[in-house]
């Protein structure tokens, strides 16, 4: 049965069985690390390469590994290194995202400010257009008033002209009457 698909109890039990085999392999590792004063040559005499390979295989089956400092690890050193690299890449990514958010925040602020300024200018333009329309309407109304006044004055002028002509006629008649009256006397 595959270790990944095995129930947790079986995996733990198989690890315990393997640990029994590993403890023997761990003994040679302790002997190797505890007697540093004897030197590396003496240790090599005690452990041959087949035992070392067998111990590493047994530990690997149990999911245990030795790192470069001969410390027992649950994770494979390569996986550990990849995890550390991934962690650093994630930190860099988070830092870059933070910088990106700051830049975007500044850009959004700038766009909001420009939008407010554009809205203010738009309102000014609308106000100016409305003022221009009202001035145009005022001029049109004033022009109509002046045209009405001109028409009224023309009618008044026509009345005055007619009255003048009538008065001139009356004057002429009176002058004629006076002339006749003077000649008759």
- How far is the N terminus from the C terminus? 165 Å
Shape: rod-shaped
Query: What is the structural class?
Result: mainly alpha
Enumerate the strands of the largest sheet in spatial order, edge to edge or round the barrel. Answer: 1-2
Secondary-structure element series: HHHEEH
Strand content: under 5%
Number of helices: 4
> How would you state the average pLDDT, rounded?
79
Helix content: over 70%
Can you walk me through this structure?
The protein is mainly α and 185 residues long. It has two domains: 67 residues, no CATH class; 78 residues. It has four helices and two strands, in the order αααββα. The chain has a two-stranded antiparallel sheet. A hairpin with a 5-residue loop joins strand 1 and strand 2. The relative contact order is 0.04. The N terminus is likely disordered. This is Intraflagellar transport 20. One of its GO terms (biological process) is protein localization to cilium. Keywords: Cell projection, Coiled coil. It is found in: Cell projection, Cilium. It comes from Ovis ammon polii.
